[in-house]
Amino acid sequence: ELLEEDKVLWKAADINNDNRLDAKEFAAFNNPEEFEHMSETLVGQMFERRDHNKDGFIDFKEFIADENGNIPDSMTEHYISEKDKFENDYDQNHDGRLDFNECINWIIPNNTEIALNEALHLISSADTNHDNRLSIDEIVDNHDVFVGSEATDFGQQLHTHVNDEL
Question: At the topology level of CATH, where does 2-107 sit?
Answer without folding.
Answer: Recoverin; domain 1 (1.10.238)
